[in-house]
Design brief:
Layout (H helix, E strand, L loop, with lengths): L1 H9 E4 L3 E7 L2 E6 L2 E4 L5 E7 L3 E11 L5 E12 L2 H6 L4 H17 L4 H6 L1 H16 L4 E13 L1 H57 L1
Antiparallel strand pairs: 1-4, 2-3, 2-5, 6-7, 7-8
Helix pairs in contact: 3-5
Amino acid sequence: VLLIVLLVSMLKILREYERGVVFMLGRFWSVKGPGLIIIIPILQEMTRVDLRTMVLDVPTQDVISRDNVSVKVNAVVYMRVVDPEKAIIQVENYFEATSQLAQTTLRSVLGQHELDEMLSEREKLSTNIQDILDQQTDGWGIKVSNVEMKQVDLDESMVRAIARQAEAERERRAKVIHAEGELQASAKLLESAQTLAKQSESLQLRYLQTLTE
């Protein structure tokens, strides 16, 4: 019975999307799977690694843009393990490490751009962040396939300031339009006055001409 229990404990099944990183007496031995594999108790130990794409939700980050605007930004990172050996040996927790790296990279990249660029060039900035993450996580056996910036929200005080600025701009334009209207009206009045003056001079000349005749 003990022999049967021992044999059963030696057998491990790895699914198609799983790999097993096997250590022999604490040293890396091999990467196994998928399918049925044998692990020798005491001498060997195995860590399972999921090869499927994982979705990493980057927490909301406070970012100061290049034009000193405070914004809150969050994003989603799509990542997967491409080298199980590196993912287990080179970093303690590859998922947490990628999350921390994504947060710092997000703040660093966006801090180099102005608010208008964050809003209008979101796809370009996401691609830039993806390239940086993919390069830096390569040593961990991680592939970052996509990054999507979900939201770019302004601070409430900044929203109020922008609203006040927009209102002031509308008032300024209204005053300019009113002043232009007054200027045009004055020009019309001056033109009319000059026309009347010319007509008056013409009548006087005709009257004098009549008297001389």
